[in-house]
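Researcher: We're teaching a course module on how sequence relates to structure. For the next exercise, students receive a sequence and then see the predicted structure as tokens, so they can try to spot secondary structure elements on their own. Here is the exercise chain.
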Amino acid sequence: MLLYKIEISHIGIKRMVKQKYANTISKAADILKAITKGINQSSSISADLGLTRSTTHRLLKTLQAAEFVFQDPMTLRYGLGPFIHSLADYSTSYHHHLIFCALPEMERLRSVTGETIVIVIRAGHRRMYLEELPSFQPLKYAAGKGYSPPIYAGATGKVLLSQMSSSELLHLLGAISFEEVAPNTITDRNLLLDEIEDIRRKGYAVSFSELVVGAGSVSIPIKNYSQPVAMCVLGPENRIANRIDEILTELRASASAIEKALVRDKSDRLRRK
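Model: And here is the predicted structure for the students to work with:
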């Protein structure tokens, strides 16, 4: 009986240690997010996150030692460190061939539509802007490379979901907690499944105010790549709504060109081996 109690005690200690590490990682992640929002002084980070100054100081020093953050010796403000930037560069280098094949057509699309052009891939329960060419117009929608909104909110996310098998899709959506990001975000799993099925039939998706109020998006899949890819035209809703057919024509032409370029690029790389 005593041995049993000791074993239970050890299990409890292990759980407490795991929980402590999980909480520490969560707090460190919150600090990194705060820095990206411009909250970059130890005292302001502490106040914003509701952490004690000693905890904030300790976590910042740990992050600094690991090169996740750096501190300017003059202003004492924190910024994202070199290791974070190397992680960001990893996605670009890993998908170099896709970006190389897509950029000429992305530039063409930006020129003919006047709007922001984005290449998007899936990143777990979210989607990530792998490459973005912002519109040159004064009023535009642009989030920046690396932006990772929920995969279920917006046209590009739904295009990515439409490229998954039914079993993969159900498994992924079953693990997501749906939240209303903008007025038109679909938060009902069954309604989302119906729309994804419709996107599979049509081959494209359109969304308005699903991710950002007043923003419109037209998106289509890019095939012949190792994982699902979506490309979209983003802009103010009032500019996108009246040009959907025109934008779709240009998107399809560019997607076809990128898909052919991906096949040629793969063949060239195989011949060089």
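Model: If you want an answer key for the exercise: The first strand starts at residue 69 and ends at 71. The chain is about 55% helix and 15% strand.
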